[in-house]
Amino acid sequence: MNKKELTAKIDSLQNELKDLFSSHKDANGEFKMSADVLEEAEKRESELGDLNKKLFDINKVESMVKRNEDYQASNSKAANPLPFEAGGSQWSEVKTIGRQIVESGALKGLNSPTVSLGDIQIKTLMSTGAGWSPESIRSGIVALSPQRALTLLDYMPSIEVNQAAFKFMLESTFTNNAAEVAESVDGTLQTYGEGVLALTETTALIQKIGTFVPVSDEQLEDVPGITDYLNQRLSYMVKARFESQLLSGNGTAPNIKGITSTSGINTQAKSTDSVFDAIYKAITKVRVQGQTEPNLIIMHPTDWQNLRITQASTGQYIFESPALAGDRSIFGIPVILSTVATAGTAVLFDTFYTMALMRKGLEVQYSNSHSTYFVNGVQAVRADMRGGLAVLRPKAICTITGL
Question: Could you tell me if residue 208 is inside a domain?
Fold first, then answer.
């Protein structure tokens, strides 16, 4: 098989592997491959490795041949006349410094640390320390520190508000006295049962979240990409704090009152139950007391780890085999993992009854008007937003503690 045929075969195998993997992705982008399909993929990977090795050997031979041809071509130039200089009555060949070094007796014999070439003496090895340091240009890559992914806002509905507070009426009392009523007749009048409804005005306050960093004018002017970097990192800081406040803000101004701090939510302690039993009891509380169907669980990664590796007395994993990716869900309810959740406490809720309130979206601004920054040649890079949380039905939420 020649080089062209090898290249075509490698491209074909790579496309086959790509199609094989793509056809075994689920809706969440996770791979689900049976043992037979995995074996087939490994077989093609092995064949691809062998072909790449053959192609590497061909390229290596071609490179050796090319170097040999170049060497022969350079030697053939020796037949051409070199520059000459006048030397008495004869013409003598002018030798380059490099050639003089090669032909020197000192170099051939290696008997002296000093090579004398007329007025030229080489006393020190030309190396990094005594020559040029290799030039290394920094790449534009910035390796970011590990920070948690922002996920909660992707699941919660959000609305824009145009005031400093969001007010809504919460139905605090609902008494259903509806009953069957007999027909009123002479002397006997029937009375309908009186229902009881009461509404309570509820206020969700809008709070500001922000941060800033000082940056010199020179950094902003001379460092390519620094503006994008600052915009991205400060934006992340504000979003991460907002997400944390949405889940567990304590409500003491200027904190947002988060989901877990809302009055009237359900709670379910694990106690002596298994984690699975505690979670299902929480689901039942939301169904019965919240009269809704929970659609999301937020859990700390270490709690999910302990749940995922739970084994039966036989040693078999309760969840699917570790060899399979598996769905990240419990009793059909999706689970999102985030360190914004407190380890040991999961939150189960119906996201329809929680709303992220957005008074002012995220904004990044640059200014030198802070303090003495103008005369210092420094600018403040500020990111901020204003938002809050409205919980429309507290009983649609249940915390699960003691995990």
Answer: yes
In a domain, residue 77? The reply is: no
Q: Which residue range(s) make up the domain with 16?
A: 3-68
DSSP per residue over 126-185, as a string?
A: -STTTSPPPP-PPPS---PPP-----HHHHS-EEE--SSEEEEEEEEEEE------PPPB
pLDDT by residue (tens digit) across 205-249? Answer: 999 999 999 999 999 999 989 999 999 999 999 999 999 999 999
Contact of 207 with 387, CB cutoff 8 Å: yes
User: Distance between CA atoms of 372 and 219, rounded to whole angstroms?
Assistant: 18
Task: Find the angle CA(67)-CA(63)-CA(54) to the nearest 5 degrees.
Answer: 160
Lowest mean pLDDT among 142-146, 200-204, 384-388: 142-146
Quote the tokens at residue 14.
Answer: 């790579």
Residue pair 107/128 in contact by the 8 Å Cβ criterion: no
DSSP state of 250: B
Neighbours of 390 (CB within 10 A): 20
**Taking Cα atoms as reference points, which of 147, 145, 359, 362 lies closest to residue 235?**
362
CA distances (Å), 302 to each of 137, 214, 307, 396, in order? 41, 36, 9, 25
Distance CA 227, CA 219 (A): 9
Q: Which residues contact 138 (CB under 8 A, 6 or more apart)?
A: none
**Same domain, yes or no, for 162 and 14?**
no
Closest CA to 113 of 129, 125, 102: 125
- Cα separation, 164 vs 352, whole angstroms: 23
Domain harbouring 316, CATH code: 3.30.2400.10
Range 31-37, long-range pairs (CB < 8 A, 24+ positions):
31/325, 32/324, 32/325
